Amino acid sequence: MFWKFDLNNTSHIDQLLDREGVTLRELMEEEDVLQECKAQNRKLLLFLSKDHCMQELVTLITEEPPADLEEKTRFKFPNIACELLTSDVALINDKLGGDESLLEKLYHFLEQEPPLNPLLASFFSKTIGNLIARKTDQVISFLRKKHNFISLVLNHIDASAMMDLLLRLISCVEPAPLRMEVLNWLNEERLIQRLTELMHTGRDEERQSNASQTLCDIIRLSRDQANQLSEVTEPDPLLAVLESQENVAELLKNMFEGERTEASVVNGTQVLLTLLESRRSGLEGLMDLYSQGCERSYTVNSSILCAIEPHLKDFQQLLLNPPTRSAILTTVGVLEQPLGSARLHVARLVASLLQTCDLSICQEICRLNTMDLLLDLFFKYSWNNFLHLQVELCVASILNHSAHADLQNPGLQNHEERPLFQHCRLVQRILDAWEENDKNQAEGGRRRGNMGHLTRIANTVVQNLEKGLAHSQMNDLIKELPEDCRGRWESFVGETLRETNRRNTVDLVSTHNLHSSSEDDDMESPFPNDLSIQQAFSDYQIQQMTANFVDQFGFNDEEFSEHDENINAAFDRIAEINFNIDANAAAFEACCKERIQQFDDCEEEEDIWDEKEINYATQIKSRSRYSTWMICLRKYNLLWTASFGDTEVSSSSSWGGPPQEGGEGPQDTSWSSFTEFQPFIV
């Protein structure tokens, strides 16, 4: 090969290093300086680890470059300097982590007045984070000597890089005893309490948002690490403070004290949701809820619920009087009073609280008629599927929790179901909304965006009436409905809902065909956020993976093997295919005659060097007859059947005629027979 004659070539980096008086900037101009550094180029590493070079590298990532430089190159050298310092090379790590003057220079970056340059802050955070992971003892010891370290970090919490630095301290320290020392140190510095104070309504939104995200990440990291540790250790002090009733109460006080802004409500509620969250959320959580009832994969700390309960009335008030928002233009028109993130997060919180199955919390939600308000919003904002999912979760939780509570304490029967069916008029609302939607569609209007979730809510009610743990109590509630409402409900369940379920549970491919068919437009919503297709697709996704899944899906480990004997693995089963064609023979033959000439194996060979016009037929003649058949088959979308042993897959004819047995029909001896089809490799 061509490179075998140049095995002893010297890189340009080495040539520069051999030159006297070479500067760091000259080396950083080279495109392969990072590659050579990570490749452990000894000459380069010795040069970079010199005191003056390390000082310059740290200066580049902590001091603003001159403002008169061109913007696209202004941060070129700081970026390269950061990559060199975090290249995870032992010599550089040792030099940076072992030299206190360099650490002091780094630390001085935090002592600047806010706001920090976000790009330089990211360089600083990445460099310190790498040292925390690689030179843990030295760096932690250095930072613990700095009594204002946490204060300075929180002072710059508006920069997301500072949030990342805090998370590095919590998650990247090893071994476990040293990590516990760091957690205790952070707890002594009152990290959680300080972050909670930043959630006050008077703080700027950027600080609130980053403080909220930091608290959420600390909760998840602490829980994950506690689950991963096999041996029993002392509890995480930060998580203990986060889950304490005092801290949750302080968080809620900061959210509702003074002017209630959407930012404070949203950011504070996100922390509460994280404290309450299960391991799965969204549709997966909904599937778990349907299948497991009130059983959860974790236990919510009772102190969290005790702190939240007195403030449920405040969240109720947010549903009634949310922070003011201006009108917005949507794809379905102008929305004068948007739902808003605050009310959406309240709906999420109510759904999470109901899923805890805490009796006191659920009774308070019923007393406040919170579900009635959420159902009002469900039907008012018919295109907000985020809200629809939360209301659906609430209804499912109430029905499942009621059944669970009835078994545990028969004296509390129907304490949640009765308000749902009587005061909230759930059944009547379902029927009225369905009839109104049908009327709207009959007049040429669109199918409403909440109909998919309404279908699922109706199915949840029916399933609990038929085979739920408290089906007898629920049937009694249905019997208490007015007679005309009971009749409408029975007709709806037996006819309308049954037909809707039949349409929504068809095979995924058939659903797609129905959606694209102009004859069946009335069966599908014109908007993709409707659940009629989503439900079929989610059902398709959650099918259990059987032992022969790989074979059915068409992939096999042997297909990716490099052994020569497996080169035909992808085509081994083609010989088993039998095609039976049944179509309008006359139309098919006319198509073929229109496209190509009849094949004649006895015709004289042509001189390939003769100048002549290249046309489509000429190209077709030089190709396999298989390609010819494919052209004709694609045009007329003929009925075909592929047989793999005992398995048969069929597609329907475009002419709408019924399939005929045996594939009998007019045949022409001039055509190839698919029964003679042989394995091939393109």
UniProtKB/TrEMBL annotation:
GO molecular function: protein phosphatase binding; protein phosphatase regulator activity
Region (Disordered): 650-682
Pfam families: SAPS
Gene Ontology CC: cytosol; nucleus
InterPro entries, per the entry: ARM-type_fold (IPR016024), SAPS (IPR007587)
Residue stretches in coiled coil: none
PANTHER family from the UniProt entry: SERINE_THREONINE-PROTEIN PHOSPHATASE 6 REGULATORY SUBUNIT 2, SIT4 YEAST -ASSOCIATING PROTEIN-RELATED
Sequence similarity: Belongs to the SAPS family.
Name used for this protein in its record: Protein phosphatase 6, regulatory subunit 2a
Protein source organism: Cyprinus carpio (Common carp)
